[in-house]
């Protein structure tokens, strides 16, 4: 099986680029951030603090997380409910970052993620795919951009969706999430030794896509 691991900080364009690449290559796209977001959302809805590991761990046995591909789009379910849209809020992103620091949550999701890569060719994006989840991935790309470039993109996405969040707030969230993701003990965000670094600060979508295709074509 071929696996492409794409890691990097929030807002580097991983999911948009990965989704398009997977569609073009005929691979299954696995958005691991969505899994952490779903668990974060579950904790918030249960009235628990996502940073409280014991409280979140007590919830894990009841969490029925399911992924399904509908017309090429990944949908994520908590039991029967499609939470693909509900997980896209800033609050769910922060909660995801908090539960992502919890080793029991990471172990819970690791198995699910490895299982998916065993069965089919995947393009998997996250924070620890090249370092922990798929250390033997065929291709590893570390996708990054400056915090300002990432915050600007995220802010534009929100504007397009009619969500009116001040830019300063988005930038502060990007920086806080970077801090949380790089400083945690469990699987911190870092570039794998054998990953190719791609900085998209100065690249638009098509240029980033072309750069990724070139990196992948060298290995697949
Ligand atoms: O990529 P996305 O912004 O949806 O991820 C949400 C959060 O989930 C990240 O900030 C990160 O803390 C966590 N995450 C993780 N490991 C992954 C994917 C996401 O810890 N493989």
Termini gap: 11 Å
Cofactors, ions and other ligands in the entry: cytidine-5'-monophosphate
How many E-type strands? 8
Tally of separate helices:
9
Protein model, in words:
The protein is an alpha/beta fold and about 220 residues long. It contains 9 helices and 8 strands. Strand 3 and strand 4 (about 75-80) form a beta hairpin. Helix 2 (about 30-45) crosses helix 4 (about 90-100) and helix 7 (about 145-160) packs across helix 8 (about 165-185). It starts with a strand and ends with a helix. The structure holds cytidine-5'-monophosphate.
What would a concise description of this structure say?
The protein has nine helices and eight strands. It is α/β, with parallel strands linked by helices and 220 residues long.
Brief descriptors of the model:
five-stranded parallel beta sheet, three-stranded antiparallel beta sheet, EC 2.7.4.25, ATP-binding, binds cytidine-5'-monophosphate, transferase, 9 helices, 220 residues, 50% helix, kinase, alpha/beta
Layout of SSEs?
Elements: E1 3-7, H1 14-25, E2 28-31, H2 32-45, H3 53-59, E3 65-70, E4 73-78, E5 81-82, H4 90-99, H5 103-119, E6 122-126, H6 129-133, E7 139-144, H7 147-160, H8 167-183, E8 196-199, H9 205-217
Parallel strand pairs: 1-6, 1-7, 2-6, 7-8
Antiparallel strand pairs: 3-4, 4-5
Helix pairs in contact: 2-4, 4-8, 7-8
This protein binds cytidine-5'-monophosphate (C5P).
Main location: cytoplasm
Subcellular location: Cytoplasm
Domain Cytidylate kinase: 4-215
């Amino acid at each position: 099986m071929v696996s492409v691991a794409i890691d990097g900080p929030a807002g580097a364009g991983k999911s948009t680029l990965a989704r398009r690449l997977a569609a073009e290559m005929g691979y299954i796209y696995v958005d691991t951030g969505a899994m952490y977001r779903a668990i974060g959302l579950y904790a918030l809805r249960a009235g628990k603090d996502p940073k409280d590991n014991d409280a979140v761990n007590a919830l894990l046995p009841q969490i029925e997380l399911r992924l399904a591909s509908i017309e090429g789009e990944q949908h994520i379910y908590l039991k029967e409910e499609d939470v693909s849209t509900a997980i896209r809020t800033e609050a769910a992103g922060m909660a995801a970052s908090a539960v992502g620091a919890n080793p029991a949550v990471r172990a819970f999701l690791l198995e699910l993620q490895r299982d998916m890569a065993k069965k089919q060719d995947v393009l998997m994006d996250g924070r620890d795919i090249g370092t922990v989840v798929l250390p033997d991935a065929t291709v590893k790309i570390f996708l990054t951009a400056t915090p300002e470039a990432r915050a600007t993109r995220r802010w534009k996405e929100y504007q397009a969706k009619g969500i009116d969040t001040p830019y300063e707030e988005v930038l502060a969230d990007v920086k806080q999430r970077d801090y949380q993701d790089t400083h945690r003990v469990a699987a911190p965000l870092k570039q794998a030794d054998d990953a190719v670094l791609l900085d998209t600060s100065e690249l638009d979508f098509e240029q980033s896509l072309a750069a990724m295709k070139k990196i992948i074509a060298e290995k697949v």
